[in-house]
Amino acid sequence: MGERTDEHEGPGGVRVPDSRLAAEATELVRDTTSDLVYDHSRRVFFFGSLLGRARALSHDPELLYVAALFHDVGLGERFHDSGRRFEVDSADEARRFLTARSVPEDGIRRVWTAIALHTTPGVPEFMEPEVALVTAGVEYDVLGFGFDELAADDRAAVVALHPRPAFKQRMLRAFADGVGPKPETTFGNVKADVLAHYDPHFERGDFVRTILESPWPE
Questions:
Q1: What is the tens place of the pLDDT at every residue in 12-39?
Q2: For residues 159 and 70, what is the distance between their CA atoms, to the nearest angstrom?
Q3: The pTM is what?
């Protein structure tokens, strides 16, 4: 993977930030994740950027880029025994990366929040643009939400740059492998649906039962 190169100029006129921070983030994520996760993460940046333009959301491209690149690193094997949601592991990795490079705290907070909330629908869209656009990019690439909001030519250009062969099944499998070792972390979130589909022994947490069976007498 280390020999792979990418152009700064992207589809629809979206440019990958030409900075040392962005370059180091690219190298780190490209070299420590699968092509599946890397390509998906880059598409999230491009789709998020294009959606930001379409929705007139002014944002910091560098923060959006780092957040998009790191948002799924927590699915990796080294996090399987963390006991935490993969979103938090991903967010913490991004925070360590940014802190080591003396990025201002407000920027670190935005990136951490964008990653931590990217699978929590109905909340990020009301937050800072970087937070909103990471989720928008994820939802566009994974779920197809707002599919026709972007021009077909721009969409095709993103996929040409970062292809998605058998992406649906491969990404679902990556989700299942990433959270399967810590199924308790799926309580109350969308990854419970993934384990329910792939693991015949998975027992979904029940919010109502949890309340009724709590130690409170009433």
A1: 899 999 999 999 999 999 999 999 999 9
A2: 19
A3: 0.93
